[in-house]
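@channel sequence for tomorrow's demo:
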Amino acid sequence: MKLHEISVKRPVAVLMCVLIILVLGSVSFSKISVDLMPNINLPIAIVSTSYSGVAPEEIETILTKPIENTIATVNNIKSIQSISSEGNSIIIAEFNSGTDMDFATLQMREKVDMIKGYLPNDINNPMVMKLDPNMMPILNISITNNHNEMTLKQFSDEYIKPRLERLEGVASLGVTGGRTKEIQVNVDPEKAAGYGISLNQIMSVLQTENLNLPGGAIEYADKKLLVRSTGEFKNIEQIKNIPLTLPNGIVLYLHDIADVAHTNKPVDSYSRTNGKSSISLSLQKQTNANTVSVTRAVKNELSIIEKEYPDLNIDIVFDQGNFIEKAISSVANNAVIGGLLAVLILFVFLKNMRTTFIIATAIPISIISTFVLMFFAGVSINIVSLGGLALGVGMLVDNAIVVLENIYRHHSEGYTKVEAALTGTKEVGRAILAST
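structure tokens (generated this afternoon):
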């Protein structure tokens, strides 16, 4: 039997199937990701490398060109662009359409790892990532209080950031503004030259002294004790008293040729809220995370933090989740209003309550069943998919009218209700399916 025959001859089975679809659709709707726009898989990947304090010309020579040359050997590369600026190298690789970007970025990481030994030791590890429109922050948070900027910055880095990053769906959290402590070692070049000590020697000593080293294990009776040597600096006096051995055997201390002092790290970014210095947090979500759910969870956690620390003032500067809710609500409301108006107009012109009821029932059943397919296909609820559903309502009403009018025509010609339903649907079913 064909579908229209089953619908007429097996009404109970069809009703059960419809109820199952409605239940599945309702469950699927609650689990579908909500976003502003659909996921777009762009065939573009980026390699970003930073090397503080180095001029663009040197960045081009020692970073950009070697990385660019090795990336050029990756399969399906279409074009490569690079940007070398002070302290930063950015390489943008465009791939042929249809390339598996997860595999392509994996290949790029392998190529970059192969040449790491030829790059300077003190660079930050090159970051390879595919270009994702969802990389944009979904939430910007401003934090202020009555304490100094340094304390607030440290609190944000060490407490608020880790606490929010533990939430489900949160990928990373960027912290800007405020001041950061650092210890500066200002070497007197004349004194160092007089003792025959170079800056490289001083840097090497600082690196080797500031280490915790494992010492292996010691078997004692029935116990196994792990041993380690603690050498990390605990205070500034330990740094000042680092011994420097000269070639002639004389021992100097770092404070003899350098000034060691606590100071503030140079500020490279400022954050202000309503004219007051603040700490700004930019939150990025994971690729497949529900934007609305993530922003709600973060805001709930922030309200808990505010209760725990009453002296903190936390403001939401930008909330993409709120914007998405409003945009989707607007599209959904327009779709509902459009459906209701369509049903009302049908009743006015057809003047038949039964016909109008049949069409009105078909609209929500069709939309809810679509959510099942969207869930299994990985399609999110966004303004594009909802706009498509709204257009589908119009097509659904048109098709329903054509089928019902044909059924009523056959019924008026003397066919029984069952015969009219079967014949009328069979005549126009294929044409409607093809046009849809």
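heads up for whoever presents: The mean pLDDT is 82.
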